[in-house]
Write a structure and sequence with these properties.
Length: 316
């Protein structure tokens, strides 16, 4: 991916004490991974490099307010975050007790984040940017490419990666500027922890999920999954409840299943947006444009080289 300050942004998810400080509530889960990757240091290097070279920096933070404690559903990790008051704040317009709390920025990052130029998006409430204004903020500033870093690798970072790609951005993840949790039951966030069979096809399941080794589902499995969602809609109070019920049977996350359903709705004309064939054609055209640009650049440099060589020959 070619980066340019005019169209490329640095996006950092959750640069906050609860997941990056050794006093944070998640340190027991993520500390080893942070130390091995030198995550804290590498995120700071990204901040410094972006600021020094004129790149816009965007923060996608994670906050929970007292009203969020009233949610009626949530996965195992969400429940753990709520119970430990991870990223907790007293209210959306109240900063009482915020300074130095688990929801506050890591102290060494504050000079970069609080410089009056960094764009702090509204909080994402689950893992991805579907629930905040990050995409709008990026588009309003003409950004089409994202360098992505932050916490946690297999939750918020992966969810941001997937949704930003879904929204049409080019994304590069800085793999040593993130870290993943490790848990005796849920496993290592970077590793698949359980192998199972679904519809005769092997898949890897993990309590956390896996950033580096996503399962590949055949078109037949996706079609079956979408049918299962439609068949079970009337048995649940909401679509999200259906997705949470069906996804474990497939070995995928509810968010992945939601995106399959959305794309199927676009393909059948029931939802606005690019169909699968249109998306594939667009990607092919973008590849062709990149290849043409690369070829033109090679020709330009070659022409300049031979022109200079000719001038040198005549001057002798």
């Amino acid at each position: 991916m070619e980066i340019d300050a005019r169209n490329t942004a640095l996006v950092v998810t959750d640069p906050q004490n609860d997941v990056l400080s050794d006093t944070g509530v998640a340190w027991a889960l993520v500390g080893d991974s942070i130390r091995e990757n030198k995550t804290v240091e590498h995120i700071e290097q990204l901040f410094a490099a972006a600021k020094a070279n004129g790149y816009d920096v965007f923060i996608s933070p994670h906050y929970y307010y007292p009203a969020d404690q009233e949610w009626l559903s949530g996965g195992a990790v969400e429940t753990m975050m709520q119970e430990t008051r991870m990223f907790g704040r007293v209210g959306p317009l109240d900063l009482d007790g915020f300074r130095g709390s688990g929801a506050d920025w890591l102290e060494r990052y504050k000079p970069y984040i609080e410089d009056g130029r960094t764009i702090v998006a509204s909080p994402h409430k689950i893992y991805g940017p579907e629930t905040n204004d990050l995409v709008v903020q990026l588009r309003k500033r003409g950004k089409s490419r994202v360098v992505l870093a932050g916490m946690l690798a297999n939750l918020c970072v992966e969810s941001h990666l997937r949704e930003l790609i879904e929204q049409g951005f080019e994304v590069a993840v800085v793999k040593d500027a993130t870290a993943a949790p490790r848990h005796p039951q849920l496993g290592d966030g970077y590793q698949p922890v359980k192998r199972t069979e679904f519809l005769g096809r092997p898949h890897f399941l993990g309590g956390w999920g896996s950033m580096g080794r996503p399962s590949r589902f055949s078109p037949e499995v996706r079609e079956r999954a979408i049918r299962m969602v439609e068949e079970h809609r009337e048995n649940h109070a909401s679509e999200w409840a259906v997705l949470q019920s069906v996804a474990p049977k497939l070995g995928c996350t509810a968010e992945t299943l939601r995106k399959w359903v959305r794309q199927a709705q676009r393909d059948t004309g029931h939802r606005p947006g690019l169909t699968t064939s249109e998306r594939e054609r667009l990607k092919a055209l973008e590849r062709e444009v990149r290849e043409l640009k690369r070829a033109n650049e090679i020709l330009r440099k070659a022409s300049a080289y031979f022109a200079q060589a000719e001038l040198d020959r005549r001057s002798k």
